[in-house]
Recover the amino acids of this structure.
């Protein structure tokens, strides 16, 4: 019973952290992964970060 709640909590925290990183520091992550950075890619990554963060909030 408690194991399931721990997994769900860890999942929501992980999604929230990745969402914040992708929303506010997409350049750092894309440069670390050696991905070419242009405006379209930045907007797409920021939207993905917002999506991850919202899933994390809804999951928690």
């Amino acid at each position: 019973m408690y194991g399931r709640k721990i997994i769900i909590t860890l999942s929501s925290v992980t999604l929230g952290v990745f969402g914040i990183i992708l929303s506010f520091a997409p350049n750092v992550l894309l440069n670390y992964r050696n991905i070419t950075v242009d405006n379209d890619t930045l907007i797409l990554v920021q939207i993905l970060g917002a999506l991850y963060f919202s899933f994390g909030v809804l999951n928690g």
Q: What stands out?
A: Residues 2-59 form one domain. The two ends are 16 Å apart (CA to CA). The chain has three helices and no strands.
